Amino acid sequence: MNQTSPTVQQLSRRAFLQGSTLLLAAPALTSARLTELCTRKLQDPQETDSKLKLGLITDLHHADKPAAGSRHYRETLTKLEEAASQFAEDDPQFIVELGDLIDAADDVDTELAYLETVHSAIDQLPGEKHFVLGNHCVHTLTKDEFLSGVGQEQSHLSWDAEGWHFVVLDACFRSDGVAYGRKNFEWTDTFIPQEQLDWLRADLEAAEAPTIVFAHQRLDVDNHYGVKNAAAVRQILESAKLDGQPAVRAVFQGHSHKNDLKEHGGIPYCTLVAMVEGSGAENNGFSTLHIEEDQTLRLTGFRQQSSREWKPTASAANRTPDSAAKSLRIQPNNIKAATS
Ligand SMILES: [Zn+2]
């Protein structure tokens, strides 16, 4: 980590276990109860300081079909209910679903029915919803079918709220630039076309605000989970500066189903756990991202999702109270979308 990097800290469940007098006094608690107490303990500190909250869910793979390997498709709706009760408590302004919302059916109509079922459950969650396209979202369906199913016009877009900027990217393209849809691709061939890169560069330049980026496929690895031109995307993300520091404060991704955290050019890339993985509530995974007044990002993870915290650099933190952050209000309809 170099000098300009945000402080990256992983807050493990073990740390909370060790620090909790509640738990020391109750050695016979079941693991389910421990998890409940840990997650409660996680919610408490500085709760009132959050200026923005986002509920994050990813890789739900909802489908009415038997489990395959570790993927328990039919349990997603129950796991989503647990996330819903947590989000009802946290009351996030935004929900971001990071892709692979559904899994394959034998035909388009059945898959559209899966989409309708899971989307109507997500629709009940608090806050404005944004969807990232995952390879499974557009395996059988076309992008238009998926997007109209979730009521979203664009697959890559950005919005502003409370002095922060948020970007959703779409890496569901083949390296020859053809958009995914109707089984026309290999899932390892994932790419962000030049037109979207140009849009991203212009969007970040215009924003001049601390920014959070969401993608389904990974921008931090060169293996089969990684976007083929991830290095070009990272170069654009790293070139956006605010007071000499990276304007992009974090990138959140899904796709590889396990917790991970890497850093490139002072930007943390956080991979979130898949909701579909494993059977039972203990294998659920979702999180609430708290953006605090001093620009600290605090990811409160539940069940299998790790909790993490990123502190801003001193110069970034000093900028917060007086400048753009204070003057901007939530602009839920201010979707700056590209034309493609
Ligand atoms: Zn995926």
Please state the CA-atom Rg, rounded to the nearest Å.
19 Å
* CATH homologous group name: Metallo-dependent phosphatases
Strand content: 15-25%
What order do the helices and strands follow?
Answer: EHHHEHEHEHEEHEHEEEEEEEEHHE
Please describe what this structure looks like.
Helix 5 (108-123) runs parallel beside helix 6 (143-150) and helix 7 (194-207) runs parallel beside helix 8. It is globular and about 55 Å long. It is α/β, with parallel strands linked by helices. The protein has one domain (7-20, 30-337): Purple Acid Phosphatase, chain A, domain 2 (4-Layer Sandwich). It has helices at residues 13-19, 21-24, 31-43, 76-90, 108-123, 143-150, 194-207, 230-239, 314-319, 324-327, and strands spanning 7-11, 50-57, 94-97, 128-131, 157-161, 164-168, 211-214, 241-242, 245-246, 248-253, 260-264, 267-271, 285-292, 297-303, 307-311, 336-337. The strands form three sheets. Strands 1-15-14-13-2-3-4 form a seven-stranded mixed beta sheet. Strands 11-12-10-7-6-5-16 form a seven-stranded mixed beta sheet, with helices on one face. Strands 8-9 form a two-stranded antiparallel sheet. Zinc ion (ZN) binds next to loops.
